[in-house]
Amino acid sequence: MTSLAAVVLLCLSGWVTLYVILCNINGSRGYEWNCRLVTLLHGVLVVCITAYIGYVDGPWPFTYPGTKNTPLQISAMVLSLSYFIFDMVWCMYFRTEGPVMLAHHTVSILGIMLTLWLGESGVESCAVLFGSEVTNPLLQARWFLRRTGHYETTLGEAVDLAFVLLFVFMRVFVGGAMLYCELISPRPRFFIKCGGVAMYALSWVFMVDIWRFAKRKYGSKMAQWREQGARSLKNGAVVGDEAHEGKLD
Fold first, then answer.
1. What is the CB-side half-sphere exposure of residue 180 using CA atoms within 13 A?
2. Which of 24, 56, 219, 220 has a CA between 20 and 30 Å from the CA of residue 114?
3. What is the DSSP string of 85-140?
4. Helix, strand, or coil here: 68?
5. Across all residues in the chain, what is the average pLDDT?
6. How far apart are CA 130 and CA 126, in angstroms?
């Protein structure tokens, strides 16, 4: 555990160093811009590593939860643990996130620490990391599009739709299946199962916010489309009446 703690501190210093370098290069962009670049890099790295773990290196998390951690699983968890510590401190210092996101980071940090300490359940922890971070690039893309003035475009619409659909599929359906396999398996420890329940509950809290966003955004768009359709029908009727009157003349 001492060597793992040293590696976590080393990775943490790497995230901090990267953030400082980005702030020096992109000083005019602001602190949050550079922090989100770090977040984007972490998301892409972790998604690639955990996807390889789940689909290639194994074992399959739905079938073999609670198994011993492999070196690659440990590397992925250490990388994410150090990032979550960095981002947690950053969010608390700049006060940019609400209690739900801070709770998500807290549960993630405690869950990864527990998994590393027990030396098992790394496969399902990596599966949770994959499901949690696979939507992260789209989330950061939305933010960058807003800041650059390109959000109200076709690209912005595509990113929003892809984010909502992917979040629902991964967090609710795939996450629900993963939690079910975790709970019915006799191998995972009780505290690991509790962590899975907590992460899935947080996913539903995020899901409620996303539902409100989707209802507000696409509800207003549907109203606009109906209004435009009514106007088109009305204009078509007026043109038709004018054409008919011209024939009478």
1. 6
2. 56
3. HHHHHHHHHHT-S-HHHHHHHHHHHHHHHHHHHHTB-HHHHHHHHHHHHTTHHHHH
4. strand
5. 88
6. 6
Quickly tell me which residue has 């950061």 as its tokens: 140
Please report, for the chain, how many H helices and E strands are present, in that order.
9, 0
- The structure's pTM equals 0.85
- Spatial separation of the C-alpha atoms in residues 15 and 9, rounded to whole Å: 10
CA proximity to 129, closest of 164, 82, 185: 82
Do the Cβ atoms of 178 and 127 come closer than 8 Å? yes
Estimate the crossing angle of helix 175-184 against helix 190-248, to 10 degrees. 160
Instruction: Find residue 120's DSSP bridge partners.
Output: 68
What SS3 class is residue 189?
A: coil
Burial state string for 94-129 with b = 16 or more CB within 10 A and e = fewer than 16? eeebeeebeebbebbbebbbbbbebebbbbbbbbbb
**pLDDT, tens digit (0-9, with 9 covering 90-100), for 16-39:** 999 999 999 988 899 999 999 999
The tokens describing 117, both together, are 């300490």
From first CA to last CA, the distance across the chain in angstroms is 95
- For the stretch 42-75, pLDDT in tens is 999 999 999 999 999 989 999 999 999 999 999 9
Two structure tokens written together for 105 = 């980071």
Beta-ladder partners of 68: 120
Whether residue 244 has pLDDT greater than 50: no
